[in-house]
């Protein structure tokens, strides 16, 4: 699971550098982000600019990450979702749960 | 569309990394048969990938099959395999469902709850995922069945006890999608 990480002020911007966010990568992605949370990162922005498709396994990983941030009063923002991915969040009503922003600039500000 | 129905067998790759390409090939074939509705094709991809992902996670039967069938008014995506019936938790009833049972709340694990309509002793239709949206803590972490239920017009499971054949079938309407 290839991730690019960049610290912008208090925010950790994580860019997924894979085209498919799927079953093969969901567990590894979750583990890596949970490690970041354990290291003290609680303001996370995840960019999907390179991701063509996201499946249910990855959705589950994102929900698990959000649950881990909850007791730490952290924030998880998702950004740069393509139309298919945005549609998937709407279909599952998770667009009402996650904070979704158009660009990393608005997500990290 | 007088050449219909047509069937497209799905070759499941060994890992989930090949599924997007498989779904793209299916969408291309559907386009070649005159299906151009972008919303419908998006739903087909969702159902295909989620059914196939479930296949990779749970099905070990070498004779397991997935098939897409395009007809004039409907498109069906069907997964069949031989093995034990689908496992779920339900306080009220289990297989075989007693005669007269209509709707049930069933669960496939933590927060993965669904409302189903019983269609026979070993058959039911997924009606609606039951999600408690009042708390993030109570959100499910499994969305495969929910996605298929929402993306299709009808999503049905059936089991044949004599042959041990399991079937998941999602139906999408060609018109009005």
From TrEMBL, chain A:
Name under which the protein is recorded: Anti-sigma factor antagonist
Family, similarity comment: Belongs to the anti-sigma-factor antagonist family.
Source organism superkingdom: Bacteria
Pfam families linked: STAS (PF01740)
Entry GO MF terms: anti-sigma factor antagonist activity
Domain STAS stretches: 20-109
PROSITE patterns associated with the record: STAS (PS50801)
TrEMBL record, chain B:
Domain of life: Bacteria
Annotated protein name in UniProt: Anti-sigma regulatory factor
Organism lineage: Bacteria, Pseudomonadati, Bacteroidota, Sphingobacteriia, Sphingobacteriales
